[in-house]
Amino acid sequence: MAQLVLTLAGGVLGGGIAGGLGQSLGALFGAYVGGILDRELFGPQQDRRTVEGTRLTELNLSGSAYGQTMPVVWGRMRVPANIIWVRGIREIVRTETETVRGGGKGSAGGGGGTQTITHTSYHYYADVALGVCEAPITSIYRIWLDKMPLDPEHVDDIRTYYGDETQSPDPLIQAVEGAARTPAFRGLSYVVLENLYLTPYGNRFPNFEVEVYRGSDADVADARHLVRSVCVMPASGEWAYEPDVVRSRVRDSNINSNTGRKVADFTVSIDNLRREVSNVEWISLVYAWFGTSLDAATCAIRPAAEYAITPDRLPDTAPYSWSVMGSGRPVIGWPGGWPLVSSYTRPDGTTGLSYGGTVSDGSIVRAIRHLHSLGYKVMLYPFLMMDIPPPAASPFPWRGRIAGAAADVPGFFERNDGYLRFIRHCMALAEQAGGVDSFVIGSELVALNRIRGGAGGYPAVPFWRQIASEAKIRLGPRCIVTYAADWSEYRYHDRGGANVDFPLDALWADPNIDVVGIDAYFPLTDRPRAVYDKAAIAAGWASGELIDYYYATQDDRDLGRRGLDQRRMPINDPFWAIKNIRWWWENDHVPRVGGVPTGPATAWVPRGKPIWFTEYGFPTVNCATNQPNVFIDPKSIESFAPYYSNRAVDRVVQRVAIEATEQFWSDPANNPASPLYDGPMVGRRFVWCWDARPYPFFPTLTKVWSDGENFRLGHWIEGKIGNMQLAGIVRDLCLRAGLAASEFDVTALDDEVVGYVVTERKPVRDMIAVLQTAYFFDAVERDGVLVFVKRGAGSPITIDPNDLGASENDSDRSRVKVERTQDTELPIAVDIVHLDEGRDYQSSTVTVRKQVGQSESVNTLSLPVVLTVEQAQEIGQRALREMWQGREAVDLRLPTRAIRCDPTDIVAVPIDGVWRRIRLTAVTYGKPGLVLLRGVATDGGVPEFYTAPTGSGVLPPSAPEPVAPVRVELLDMPIMIDNHDASASSFYVAACPVGIGRFRGATLFQPTADALDYTVAAAASLPSIIGTTVTELAPGPAWRWDRANAVEVQLDYGALQSLADERVLAGGNAALIDDEVIQFASAELIAEGRYRLSRLLRGQRGTEHEIAAHPAGSRFILLDPARQPRPNVSVSRIGIEITWRTAPVPQGPSGDLSGEIVFTDSGKGLRPFAPAHPRATRERASGDIQLSWIRRTRIGGDSWLNEVPLGEETEEYNVQILDGANVVRPLRVAGPSALYTAVQQMTDFGVLPASLAWRVAQVSRVLGPGASTEITSTF
């Protein structure tokens, strides 16, 4: 009989968060209690045997989540989910039958008989609805069960509800409960998991956690509501744009479904776009082939595959095969197929693909149709990626550098592998998809377009006009055709000497070109620090660098780095102002020779066509608006940070810059209407970029997508553009408190908040206080309005020194009163406990320490806020700075006529002859005409603190990972710790991962007595540190430091460290090499995973007999009883050779990653150690020899008692008298001494021997004699 209990454990979030904000909501249901399970194992019959698994006989639901406080979330957050509905558990019985042929004699033909074995197993499923948080929310990303990402194979369907007021009931709940009894749960976001498989979770409901995203409200004019058009990339990746799931037939796994749901990544990403940037109307689908050279004469333009296959693996994917222009990937040994993309070596020494392969033709067609079905208009944007790997002098360059002579241009377009083949194929794809709304004929081929012919013409331009004509004919008159010019080329070509042509004007004026396309990465600011002022950034579109001035040299610009005024050259003629789009659009274009307008105007018609920003955007890096066109990609020669940038992650500047851009061009005063067409000067603005690989799986799954490392500082907007603004959260909280919108002002709060959660009922004041701690703002009432202001912002109010010292009665005329806190009372460090964005929202601590000081105290700020490591560092640095700057409290007395101020204002006041900045904390009006001010010092401001991180700041990966293969070692050795001395087997099991995937544990299976099945013998839940020696370990002394020898080991898993001698002597750094237990004090890392071990102790734990020359290739296991379990195996199996099976959890003994180990347990762990200090003394009178020794113990040997524990049931020894290799007399004694009489000596040798060879071993009642000590004594 047995009992199973199905329990629902409480969800836990951020255990280190103060005030209960991060505490668990608790176990909502208590427990689901299962009934008693009556299992009956039928004995084997002659021809049939049944093996029946565990079965549940009853399951009762005992609670609900109604009445529980649901979390309130702003931004992105991982929250515990609570069951709000469940349908009864369903049992599935699976029966498998196998026939086993027996041995021995049989009745027919002499063969053995057969036995049929029936295996019956029970599996349990449930339908469950999970309440997530207050609604409405924007998206639900990931779901965790017992801290592990939900495996899509464990659930049939996932339906998400975002909690708006029009939410309909779930159809499954409605079908079960009836329409009248089914709530819609409006105002609550929830998830329905249909047919959830419970068996992998121990036949119980696991902990559920859900990653949610709540963006700003629809009435907020922020970036995610302002953007109307986006570019979708990555442009390459064989199945990156495939709306259907594609499966690898080779690996038997989904290629393009990495989100834990049974849908394609592209579909998930576009679904996220629909919700998170909900006003998008146009999508530019970027599609790339690869260029092979920067020389126009030799540059081939072609598709490429990611890998080759062998003929036996065709087809390698289903339901579609990869194909471009009718050709597939290369097949080894067969002709044909497209080439492979190049590989490159990363900084860590690993090798990866430089790019994803070209998107399969069918995927492009299906992607366009899918986008159209969702109501989007689609622009197809053909794109060239330069696949030029090292050792090229300029690896992975920009396509705009393709150059050559005028004679090379026709070949660039017309060769069999030229540009025309590529662009015509793109037109064909658009035709197959049923058409596109816009088509880009090319982009950013700056150097090619500036190749000038002998007659002064530009030979590339006629080809662009030809392509535009073909596109119009093939795609129809309604398809908007353009060329996407780089921001530096759309305007003119300065050939030097003030000689200027307009090579693209003939293209812009061509009737087949509908709009002027510009990839508009113009510099909008030019300051040594990041600009967050939206008005200043917006003004950059109509002023500043490249309109009002330019830099003649880089040195002139770089004066700003040294705090000097930059040397700017004024632009007095708008003709030269590259960024002055309006002047270019509104005027005729006349070439210049020597700076003088010469000849007729070009074919451009002023105001004749709209301008589209075919790309614009900003990287999320400090000072991005100074140079938006650059990007950071370590493998590319083009990798640069913007001017003045310190490469700090800065998502605020991206959001603010997009908002400023959209608002600027949405204003008719900046974007005039044309009298020649119906529309403004600047029409569509496509933001670069939204990725087809869904956030947050990209960028965290770096094993799937290696360019995830570039995400932090790149132009991507998913996971960034929609981050909540602090102003929006405080606004929401004020409205929750009952304030009208006119009663508060949050416009000064421009910080970004990745995520904030409240999980319990509390006053709004307390909720805002947490944000004040993290983002350093204050609140003050001004004219009946609650105004939120950034701490220390704004210019200081200067106080006239003559006004200081006013008093009520002339009794206190002190001008300024200063109180200073003792330095020893201030903290030397601050711990910022937060939810780490880069570690799947786990609680993390960042410590910021003051470099000098006598204080020893540490302050802890616990914040239920999602932060990056850099943000936590900045908060800690500012908090510590404020604590130390604020140690001076200042009191001022002034006449009211002298100043009008409020708390939070900054005043400048002379103190002891030095002007100081004081932040006011209180303003009190005394008698008429007198105001008392109190504040704290803020001198020095808050400078930037930043240390460039070495990693990506993300936690890879967070989707279901494959199970890693395991290496398993069986350790036949002495017991490690005393309480392991039991009547069971004495060996240990060590396991570690040896391949890609997650280590969930390893299982050792032992065969049943009839060898027909396997049972679990041991489970190693933690990985061991295992490796192999790569050098020989020579013999050495036992039990004392071996300073002469060293050995090198290569680890399969884990790391080693050096320890002080005393820690080694206390048992640290024990390891097994072959069968010898050693210890080491020094572990020197000499290569990745390779260590040199020295200062050794040899022959430990009774293994002195194993000291030998261990050759290279010997196994190495760091011993740790917490990681190396003892199997539950009977001692009756000691000495029997057994074939064991091993497998990684959760596989069984017959899984595809299972293995076999043939191993005999010798029982070393149960055998006594060899006695020590043997002695033999002859009595002169009798001639008898007294033999003695010191008993050793395998249990409690470190005791300092007079006697160590016996370790055996009785004390008994075998003594053997030797004559050469022969035993001439055995003795059995019950104590640590024996008498070898003179009579016995004469009998054995005929004389009294002058020397005696003998050995002694302690005896185990279970296994007999243990290890022996042998000696030759001389008398």
TrEMBL record:
Query: Which residue range or ranges hold the Rcc01698-like C-terminal domain?
Result: 1025-1117
Tip attachment protein J domain segment(s): 760-924
Which Pfam families does the record cross-reference, listed alphabetically?
GTA_TIM, Phage-tail_3, Rcc01698_C
> Please, which domain of life does this record's source organism belong to?
Bacteria
Under InterPro entries, the record lists: GH, GTA_TIM_dom, J_dom, Rcc01698_C
CDD domains to which the protein is assigned, alphabetical: GTA_TIM-barrel-like
The record's section on Gene3D superfamilies has: Glycosidases
Q: Which SUPFAM superfamilies match?
A: (Trans)glycosidases
Q: Where is the GTA TIM-barrel-like domain?
A: 419-699
Question: What name goes with this protein?
Answer: Gene transfer agent (GTA)-like protein
Q: Which organism is it from?
A: Afipia carboxidovorans (strain ATCC 49405 / DSM 1227 / KCTC 32145 / OM5)
